[in-house]
């Protein structure tokens, strides 16, 4: 089955794209919104010294701040008003999804359809505000304790920082919802992708600078570039991969009509969990390094410092734990977002069944078995994609600037956006076909009306001819009756004369 990108490439017609006014408006709106987001990442937080923060950030860029800076599009590096980016919303969404499996109330809301989804989205927004306030307050305390970064520390700076960073996050959440409603693609995903793409040129430039300085060989740089292309193609292939389960629907009778049995498929993605496992795994492994970086004693030999030493980038223990956490979160998040029992119940409710499998519990067990098998492949795929840059960084003894997580996010979001563009183009072409068909039907109806008029006119002529014929036949009948009446009268007169003569 061809992907949306392949279908778009095969059916791309620039004339149709130029005529699709609604699609062009959506694309321009999306680009404008992303431009506003990029402008916001350059507005610094009030009350800080950018030069002092630049020095501190360089010493801690290898920890969790570096990863968050990648998702924030350089907002943390510049300590901008969008430093938190959309990450509190992502965390709130994940927490709410996890709670739907625990809380019966949220689970019932999830089953209520559109109305329940709106309530869950509202809960997600409330939790986003709480998380953003907590993170912003932590950032304000961290900035005050980081040396001479804050010009005037105190409660005023903390309150201003909390309001600014929380407001920036809420504005980005609103902007993402507007992109989703009035633009192209998922707004939240596009904002994250825009931040990553904005940092990729600087990462590539840094890698080339290391090559110029002799830290990286030219052959290694070429290997990295070729591997990036191969990994992107591999990601596209794996993200499209599905395991389709055959679903049969029996014959059914509705009223007096009998409907034939139908055949459908239940698609199971090879990577159901998406990019959540690498993000969770990276966050957990970078926590010791970040905590160690905030220690005041540079020669500290505590537990945190020891953990940070063994869990550094490129260390064997780091890679082993990274792979183990990715596999664990792949299975965990798949179990959260996909419920085999619910799927089996829906199939049973609508009369569908898997051939050879009894509906109900047996179907749920079969779907769970298949999902577990394909999740193993998906987890290994995520592990391979995320460990390749780490192995290269360890081999080169230098950071490459981008990892497998960023590639996963960029490729996945791009595929989804291209699919939506293709859908809008198909809808536009369908509307054109409908209008054309309506025009042809109008022409056909016009010709049909003329034909009907001709038929009516001919029938009227025939009717007139039949009326004339009936009138002439009636006239002939009256003439015959009149002549017969006259003949009978003359016979009566002659017989009367004969009788009178005989009597005389």
What does this protein structure show overall?
By secondary structure, the chain is mainly alpha-helical. The strands form 2 sheets. Strands 1-4 form a two-stranded antiparallel sheet. A two-stranded antiparallel ribbon has the order 2-3. Helix content is 75%, strand content 4%. It has a domain at 217-397: Orthogonal Bundle (Preprotein translocase SecY subunit), CATH 1.10.3370. It has 17 helices and 4 strands.
Question: Layout of SSEs?
Answer:
Blueprint lengths: L3 H8 L2 H6 L1 H20 L9 H11 L3 H8 L15 H14 L3 H8 L2 H31 L10 H28 L4 H27 L4 H23 L1 E8 L2 E3 L2 E3 L2 E8 L6 H18 L9 H8 L5 H22 L2 H10 L11 H36 L7 H100 L1
Antiparallel strand pairs: 1-4, 2-3
How would you summarize what this structure contains?
By secondary structure, the chain is mainly alpha-helical. The chain has a domain at 217-397: Orthogonal Bundle (Preprotein translocase SecY subunit).
Keywords:
single chain; 504 residues; mainly alpha; two-stranded antiparallel ribbon; two-stranded antiparallel sheet; 17 helices
Stretches where pLDDT is under 50 for at least 5 consecutive residues are: 482-504
**What's the count of strands?**
4
User: In percent, how much strand structure appears in the residues?
Assistant: under 5%
CATH superfamily membership of the domain at 217-397, which one? SecY subunit domain
> How large is the count of helical segments?
17
Q: Which percent range fits the helix content?
A: over 70%
Q: State the CATH architecture of the domain at 217-397.
A: Orthogonal Bundle
Q: Report the CATH C-level class of the domain at 217-397.
A: Mainly Alpha
Series of H and E elements: HHHHHHHHHHHEEEEHHHHHH
How would the global form be characterised?
globular
Q: What is the CA–CA distance across the termini? A: 121 Å
Average pLDDT, all residues: 75
User: Oligomeric status of the shown chains?
Assistant: single chain
How would you classify the helix and strand content by structural class? mainly alpha
Largest sheet: 2 strands, antiparallel
According to CATH, the fold-level topology of the domain at 217-397 is Preprotein translocase SecY subunit
Order of the strands making up the biggest sheet: 1-4
Radius of gyration: 40 Å
């Amino acid at each position: 089955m061809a992907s949306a990108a392949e279908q778009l490439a095969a059916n791309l017609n620039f004339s149709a794209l130029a005529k699709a006014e609604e699609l062009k408006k959506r694309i321009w709106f999306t680009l404008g919104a992303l431009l506003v987001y990029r402008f916001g990442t350059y507005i610094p937080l009030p009350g800080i010294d950018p030069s002092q923060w630049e020095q501190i950030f360089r010493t801690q860029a290898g920890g969790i701040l570096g990863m968050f800076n990648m998702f924030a599009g350089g907002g943390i590096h510049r300590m901008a008003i969008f430093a938190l980016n959309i990450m509190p919303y992502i965390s709130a969404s994940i927490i709410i999804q996890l709670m739907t499996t625990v809380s019966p109330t949220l689970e019932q809301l999830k089953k209520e359809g559109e109305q329940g989804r709106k309530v869950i989205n509202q809960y997600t927004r409330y939790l986003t505000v709480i998380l953003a306030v907590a993170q912003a307050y932590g950032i304000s305390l961290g900035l005050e304790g980081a040396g001479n970064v804050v010009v005037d520390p105190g409660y005023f700076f903390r309150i201003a920082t909390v309001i600014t960073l929380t407001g920036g996050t809420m504005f980005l959440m609103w902007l993402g919802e507007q992109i989703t409603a009035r633009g192209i693609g998922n707004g939240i995903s596009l904002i994250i992708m825009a931040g990553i793409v904005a940092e990729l040129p600087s990462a590539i430039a840094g890698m080339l600078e290391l090559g110029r300085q002799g830290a990286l060989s030219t052959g290694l740089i070429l290997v990295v570039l070729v591997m990036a292309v191969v990994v992107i193609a591999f990601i596209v292939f794996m993200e499209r991969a599905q395991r389709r389960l055959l679903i049969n629907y029996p014959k059914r009778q509705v009223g007096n009509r009998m409907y034939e049995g139908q055949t459908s498929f239940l698609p199971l993605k090879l990577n159901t969990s998406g990019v959540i496992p690498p993000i969770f795994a990276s966050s957990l492994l970078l926590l010791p390094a970040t905590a160690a970086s905030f220690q005041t004693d540079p020669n500290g030999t505590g537990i945190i410092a020891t953990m940070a030493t063994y869990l550094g980038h490129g260390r064997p223990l780091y890679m082993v734990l990274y792979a183990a956490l990715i596999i664990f979160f792949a299975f965990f998040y798949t179990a959260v977002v996909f419920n085999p029992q619910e799927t089996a119940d829906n199939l049973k409710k609508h009369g569908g069944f898997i051939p050879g499998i009894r509906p109900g519990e047996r179907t749920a067990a079969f779907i769970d078995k298949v999902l577990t098998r394909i999740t193993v492949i998906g987890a290994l795929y995520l592990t391979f994609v995320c460990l390749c840059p780490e192995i290269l960084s360890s081999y080169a003894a230098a950071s490459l600037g981008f990892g497998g997580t960023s590639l996963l996010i960029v490729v996945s979001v791009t595929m989804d956006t291209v699919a939506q563009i293709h859908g809008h183009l198909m809808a536009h072409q369908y509307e054109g076909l409908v209008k054309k068909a309506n025009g042809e039907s109008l022409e056909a109806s016009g010709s049909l009306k003329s034909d009907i008029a001709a038929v009516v006119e001919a029938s009227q002529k025939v009717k007139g001819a039949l009326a004339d014929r009936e009138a002439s036949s009636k006239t002939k009948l009256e003439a015959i009756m009149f002549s017969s009446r006259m003949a009978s009268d003359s016979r009566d007169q002659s017989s009367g004369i004969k009788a009178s003569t005989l009597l005389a």
